[in-house]
TrEMBL record:
The keyword Transit peptide applies. Residues 131-164 are annotated as: Disordered. This is EOG090X0IZW. Residues 150-164 have a biased composition (Basic and acidic residues). One of its GO terms (biological process) is translation. It comes from Daphnia sinensis. One of its GO terms (cellular component) is mitochondrial large ribosomal subunit.
Length: 164
């Protein structure tokens, strides 16, 4: 293809198509990071012996278990992850929960529900049998009556889960 020539005030402008790269062979490799799995065998060998500071060693999200001191690696035992797996022999539940399971919506526990679930039965029995003291306090408190508020709440939660 012949370039077109334009002449203006004694200057000549030539317009043509170039098939060479305008960077004259230089490439910007900062846009193309070369991680551990990329590159030639020679590149990987050089990176293993003397890593280049501009080329990061990609860890794929794995946390280090030590640090590098000079040319040697110092392992810290506290940084090594310890996987604790419980023994599930005889476990009744299956490891999968279907998405078709209906949602269980429980309203928050009210004080009236807590009182009714834990104390009402014993108080009515004591009243009918005349086992209340002068201040309407039980003469022989049951284990339910001696519960702390937190223990009573846990007991009602377990009763609710048995019903559902």
């Amino acid at each position: 293809m012949e370039p077109s020539v334009l002449s203006l005030l004694g200057k000549q402008f030539i317009r043509g198509i170039s098939t060479s790269v305008c960077a004259c062979g230089k490439r910007n490799f900062k846009k193309f990071p070369i991680f551990n799995k990329r590159g030639t065998r020679d590149f990987k060998a050089r990176q293993a012996k003397n890593p280049h500071p501009d080329v990061p060693i990609h860890t794929y999200g794995v946390r280090p278990i030590g640090y590098k001191a000079g040319t040697s690696f110092v392992k810290i035992n506290e940084l090594v992850p310890e996987i604790i797996v419980p023994d599930l022999t005889g476990f009744k539940l299956k490891p999968y929960v279907s998405y078709r399971v209906n949602d269980i919506v429980q309203p928050p526990l009210t004080p009236e529900e807590l009182f009714g679930a834990v104390y009402v039965k014993k108080i009515t029995e004591d009243f009918k049998l005349g086992k209340l003291g002068p201040d309407n306090q039980p003469l022989h408190p049951s284990p339910e009556e001696s519960l702390s508020p937190e223990e009573a709440k846990e007991k009602v939660a377990s009763i609710r889960s048995d019903i559902v």
